[in-house]
Amino acid sequence: MNRVLHVAETAQGGVATVMRQLLRWQLSSGVDARALVPEGHLFEFEGLSDIETFRRSGRNIASIWCFALELALAVWRLEPQVVHLHSSFAGGVGRIVLILMRPFRRPAVIYCPHGWGFLMDVKPWKKAAFAAVERLLSRWCNGIVCVSEHEKSEAMRWRLPAHILHVIRNCVEAPLPIERLAGLDDGKVNLVYVGRFDRAKGLDILIEAMGQLQDADVALTVIGAGVHEDRQVRPCRNIAYVGWRGREDVAGYLARADVLVMPSRWEAFGLAAVEAFSYGLPVLGSDIAPLREIITAELDGAFFAAGRSDDLASQLRQRKRSHWRRMREQAYSTYVARFRSERMCVEIDDLYRETQQRIEQRGCKPTA
Description:
By secondary structure, this protein is of the alpha/beta class. 40% of the residues lie in helices and 17% in strands. It contains 13 helices and 13 strands. It has a seven-stranded parallel β-sheet with strand order 3-2-1-4-5-6-7, with helices on both faces. Strands 10-9-8-11-12-13 form a six-stranded parallel β-sheet, with helices on both faces.
């Protein structure tokens, strides 16, 4: 394996975090690793060279065309042995482009949806349509990376081929050397939320809970913004909105907070929880299946009933700062034992090699 091309139609948040780790690991291992991302998201890859870009103004025909064209040109010019498609939109458009290029270029295709469309909170017919598209396009995949056992089991329930599904959990880079500081607001339980402003992430549930905690010693810092659309957030005197921040700034907030809150309605994995653990920060999350694969109740975090702002408010009211501080050491131990970057990168590298070996054994070697 000499050359890998990572591809993302949008590269912020968790997708960018995973891609950065893989690029740095592969480059340090002697692999010629490249990436294709929107030019507006290039800041996520600071310090990395050989990043291909395309113009993206949203989910519109012009942006899709730019993405497809730049992907075709990159595959033609770079002749990668492996194309790793990140997220479902890149996976859909990207596989169509690669199918059309098969007479000329035949790289191994690895796809990670970073969250199946059929797991979203949408109407049943949409779930069925998403699953049908995934089943069809899976014929042009050499391997699909599921980031949790839940994601794999749901894929099998929707009849995706089990033999190409591989569970490789997301991990995070080593924490930045930022000393844990005093709380953001001494005397209060300092909460932090990191993520997009969309229905899946459940920020509205957290905002409702904070509205019920106006008389409590609780303060929330919200890091993030909308990605695909503008979403209005309700101002509240115990909430501070700080927008998207760079990794160093986010690390500072995590180092100063008492607990990360993840009010998600659905997740493929829950990368923010793992990043919090790397800074010794416990997590209060909704009791959805992917987060239950990460958090151990009363050791490195706690749960509330998914979708229930009243239960979230009750949990926050009952648990004092001392309660969360007792979990810090175990939260960091969880990161060290299960979620260090090297583990994910080695498992992805092994998947690439196994995939290429299978292709070669079938006598259909990818383009060299």
